């Protein structure tokens, strides 16, 4: 996830994945800044993102026990959602169907999921992403890559 304006200095064609998002310490630094916000789903597959405002209620949390908290800064009134491997050759050309419009600011991001009924991570897996606007970037303590799966 990213807001184009927060990553506008990335050169077209740059291998952001190798240079910025392969080292867990660098990933943690980006998470704390809220510029390029990613997490590991544990597998490839088809993921269905369900975007919501605020924080999840107890029933959503109970039915989606795998959860992480992140933060993001939005400067151009939109958030782009891309696959990690798109970072291997950077182009800020996010398809419109992979963006949402939100007011500029800082957001606390709650990401929740559960293992699909098939028992296979990534098999039409629903991922809930809750965005709660804050007055400043939330303090995050990630030291590596957040994982949105269990073994």
Describe the structure in brief:
This protein is an alpha+beta fold. The protein has three helices and six strands; from the N terminus they run ααβαβββββ.
Q: What is the residue-mean pLDDT, rounded to a whole number? A: 95
Query: What gross morphology would you assign?
Result: globular
SS-derived structural category = alpha+beta
**C-alpha Rg, in Å?**
15 Å
Strand order of the largest sheet: 1-6-5-2
Share of β-strand residues: 25-35%
Between the first and last Cα atoms, what is the distance in angstroms? 24 Å
- Give unreliable regions as ranges: none
Q: What is the helix content?
A: 10-25%
How are helices and strands ordered from N to C? HHEHEEEEE
Verbal overview:
The strands form 2 sheets. Strands 1-6-5-2 form a 4-stranded mixed β-sheet. Strands 3-4 form a two-stranded antiparallel sheet. By secondary structure, it is α+β, with helices and mostly antiparallel strands. The protein is 14% helix and 27% strand.
List its salient traits.
single chain, 151 residues, four-stranded mixed beta sheet, two-stranded antiparallel sheet, 3 helices, 6 strands
């Amino acid at each position: 996830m990213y807001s184009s304006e927060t990553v506008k200095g990335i050169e077209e064609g740059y291998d952001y994945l190798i240079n910025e998002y392969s080292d867990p310490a660098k990933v943690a630094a980006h998470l704390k800044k809220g510029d390029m916000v990613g997490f590991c789903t544990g597998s490839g597959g088809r993921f269905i993102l369900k975007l919501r405002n605020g924080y999840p209620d107890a029933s959503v949390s109970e039915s989606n026990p795998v959860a992480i908290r992140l933060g993001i800064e939005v400067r151009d009134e939109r958030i782009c959602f891309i696959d990690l491997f798109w970072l291997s050759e950077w182009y800020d050309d996010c398809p419109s169907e992979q963006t949402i419009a939100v007011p500029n600011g800082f957001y606390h991001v709650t990401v929740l999921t559960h293992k699909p009924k098939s028992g296979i991570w990534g098999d039409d897996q629903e991922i809930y992403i809750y965005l709660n606007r804050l007055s400043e970037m939330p303090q995050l303590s990630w030291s590596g890559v957040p994982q949105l799966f269990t073994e």
